Amino acid sequence: MGHASFKLSGEKIIYIDPFQIAESEKADIILITHPHYDHCSIEDIKKVAKRDTAIIAPIDCQSKIAAGKLHYAEFKNIAPGDEISVYGHHIIAVPAYNLNKHFHNKSDEWVGYVISCGGKSFYHAGDTDFIQEMASIRTDVAMLPVGGTYTMNAREAAQAALIMKPKIAIPMHYGSIVGKPEDAEVFARSVAHSKVQIMKNGEIIELV
């Protein structure tokens, strides 16, 4: 859905980091990786939240979300290593942090997510570098930032994909705030053992 935003459509509708989205289908679950404006966008959460929506996010997103006067059922704070079940979906919070820059510190306890949905697993890395915790992640679909500056770059993201070996690897976090479309192409050329899907804004992939 652009930048680092995705929607998983199955038995329930799950949004991850909605930002500058044109979508209006309401969410059952909204996952937020960290409080930066391009990931925790109150304007965009308002577009898709409803009275029985569960919002899951690190604790330092809570005051921002509360101040937005949103309609939602509950806020669940989450930290790296936490596992929860929401509307029948198993969700694991995994670490997301920088190694050689200071935009996303490990001490902030911001997250990526591994989500079980429709018999498949999905990993949204959040804003992160290529970190050692990725070696233990097993997933069918991996959404990985490639734009550099605030996250790992395309070649580092390709190394992460090589370790995890997802069936499908999707580059994200490029082409708008930071990174160029060419970064996705570099990522695609650098990845082996996985199908790379460079998604256009609004494009749908159906998994069977």
Notable traits:
208 residues, alpha/beta, Metallo-beta-lactamase, Chain A, 7-stranded mixed beta sheet, 5-stranded mixed beta sheet, globular
What does this protein structure show overall?
The protein is α/β, with parallel strands linked by helices. The protein has a single domain, classed as Metallo-beta-lactamase, Chain A, CATH 3.60.15.10. It is 16% helix and 26% strand. Helix 3 links the parallel strand 10 and strand 11. The model has no long low-confidence stretch (mean pLDDT 96).
Q: Quaternary state, please?
A: single chain
How many β strands by DSSP?
A: 12
Write the CATH architecture name: 4-Layer Sandwich
Please, what is the CATH homologous superfamily? Ribonuclease Z/Hydroxyacylglutathione hydrolase-like
Shape: globular
- Count of spatially separate domains: 1
Report the biggest beta sheet as strand number plus sense, adding barrel if it closes: 7 strands, mixed
Mean pLDDT: 96
Return residue spans where pLDDT drops below 50 for at least 5 consecutive residues: none
Strand neighbour order, sheet with most strands: 6-7-8-9-10-11-12
Strand content: 25-35%
Helix content: 10-25%
Count of separate DSSP helical elements? 4
* Structural class designation: alpha/beta
